Amino acid sequence: MATFLYRLGSAAYRRSWPFLAFWLILLLAVGGLAGAFAQKPSSSFTIPGLDSVVTMEKMQEIFPAAEDPTNAPTGNIVIRAPEGTTLTDPVVAAEVDEMLAEVRDTGLLSDPETIVDPVMASQGLQAQMVPQMEAQGMPQEKIRADLATVSPLSADETTGIVTVRFDADTMLDVPTSDVATVTDILDRYDEGDLTVVYNGNTFGAMSGDINMTSEAIGLGVAALVLIITFGSVVAAGMPLISAIIGVAIGFLGVQLTTAVSDDVSDMTPVLATMIGLAVGIDYALFIVSRFRTELIKATGANDLDPKDLAQRLRGMDRDTRAHAMGMAVGTAGSAVIFAGLTVLIALAALSIINIPFLTTMALAAAATVAIAVLIALTFLPALVGLFGTRVFAARVPGIKAPDPEDDHPTMGLRWVRRVRQRPVAHLLVGVILLGLLAVPALNMRLAMPTDGSATPGTPPRIAHEITADAFGPGRDAPMIALLDLAEVDPQERPVVMGGGVEKLVSTDGVANAQVVATTDDLGAAQVLITPEFEATDPAATQLLADLRDTDLGVPFGVTGATAIFDDVSDRLQDVLLPYVGIVLALAFLVLLLVFRSIWVPLIAALGFGLSVAATFGVTVALFQEGWLGLIDDPQPLLSFLPIMLIGLVFGLAMDYQVFLVTRMREGWSHGKTAGNATSNGFKHGARVVTAAALIMISVFAAFMAQDMVFIKTMGFALAVAVALDAFVVRMMIIPATMFLLDERAWWLPRWLDRILPTVDVEGEGLKDVRTA
């Protein structure tokens, strides 16, 4: 592989334009197709086979008018009267009527005649329901409770809810422009005395728009780190340009996928951008750094600052420079392929869990990483070749940027010597630190995104808070029980159904339960259950379990958005530990193949486990528990964040493991003692890995500027994970353990050594390569 990569790198350097043209044409083609066919990403998260999903499907078969509450094209307009007034006041009522008339006149909503002010709707509902319930002999107390539960007008008449349905089959089919047309009207009236906000499926999807602030911040910090690393503005720009091209192709490719798949969530393109940008810059950094080292070797000097190297390059022929690029791609490029492969394996393994939206998210991120690898191996050498002798020009004054291959002691060498002097102390400090940071993870709670977890101050969050205050916290967290009465004697069905409702009402945590739909023969019934808690409250999870354990005397299931989201969270939590086991096993096997050692893969995998546990602990402490007051809106972690984080951090951690430890093994295999090989290998890899880690940390941390809670939390968690894994695990625990193991670190049973294939990550096969 190293020889092939050498030829690829040198060819791309010599013949820049064909390689550059290929990627630029691909970018334009994907962009054009995405612009023509891309659809709006989904905000729905469901998993086939869950009890709540099966119940929902059965209910839709029995009641064709029933819609999937997680995907229906509906929304709520929440209206609150000015302080000191009610919605029944003539002036307020007139303004509400005027606003709703404008909403109806847009022609974008189905059944516009049903869009009336909450006071009129409440009166109509009362006129319809009360006679029916009185005819059934229902007590007045129950009648009042049922009416209050479904009434669009609060008891104090200050707050009302108007439910609207866009003229589309699902919320994915509603054009963003249509939603904006309605929200523009509502926002205009909100500027007056009325409080007008909105939430629900279709309106909630508007709160997750993507902005480019995060990318700009991440690129800015990355540029600074690269300038310090290379001491040259031009050289620093090479990884940035190649990463941007790769991310653009990946992002547009994800957008294009929406034309053929409904499983692409609105978080998928942002996640793909986040990962693609970080690894794209890092992979290019590794190759450009190795290219500089090969150029310095070609000059015959042990050390050159950027200015001297730029001067020497002017007198260096193109074949020599192409050879240096070939060597860089053949060595660092081999490590890039292997590092990228570990990320791909970790992400692709998420498909084993068989959760459609999570699989799509993981595969999109994996595809973006694959593009980043290919860009680093082909586009980057061509771009460097295009700049030719000017690649290390535009030197930044005051930055020497020494090459780690020279003979001078570096900060990395001084650090690893300190670790070598006291390996036990450094090992204990690292393990204890990560262990303490991991403790809060024991209290981790998972939940799916709801209006209650939306960004504070946004219309969906305000609407949720107003609704909870006026109607109770359970109003936005309804559940539906589907009672199967088919096997009950037709004469007994009303009694059995009534008894079932009474048992549901008597369950602790249920504010109210009432029949809202039946078949003509009473063979099935829908019972609306209003909890006393909001959807993300742990008590709601317990309530769902208690409801399912209740004996109603007939088969039944519980569904609704709250039940579906809770089941999704449970499924993701159930598969978390098995997935960790899969990832750790993969880490061990992959590193066993690379390093041909039992101990090195074992400590690498255990170190990865420690860094992930510590990351969970820090994230739970700050984002869920609100420690230190850094987060003003603590919320449970999003259900799929931990499992995505594990997949991503595994790949990134193995990146650093490969780039650091391969140089250690190279020195040991060439006759150095195990301790000297560890020190020397750390010296060669520490500077570039430090730069790569700082870039990843800055890129990930910058995504905390996004409005989407998942992306904000994921950006923070990834930044913390990279910091802990790179600087505590890879740069302290790993070298300390290597020093303690000494020669045993590279032990491998002979029988296993014979059957393992040889993987030339460091390009040993290029020793005899000459300039072509």
From TrEMBL:
Its main location: membrane. One of its GO terms (cellular component) is plasma membrane. Keywords: Cell membrane, Membrane, Transmembrane, Transmembrane helix. The chain crosses the membrane at residues 216-236, 267-288, 322-355, 361-387, 424-442, 576-595, 602-623, 643-664, 685-704, 716-741. It is a multi-pass membrane protein. It is found in: Cell membrane. SUPFAM superfamilies: Multidrug efflux transporter AcrB transmembrane domain (SSF82866). Residues 251-386 form the SSD domain. Belongs to the resistance-nodulation-cell division (RND) (TC 2.A.6) family. MmpL subfamily. This is MMPL family transporter. It comes from Corynebacterium humireducens. The lineage of its organism: Bacteria, Bacillati, Actinomycetota, Actinomycetes, Mycobacteriales.
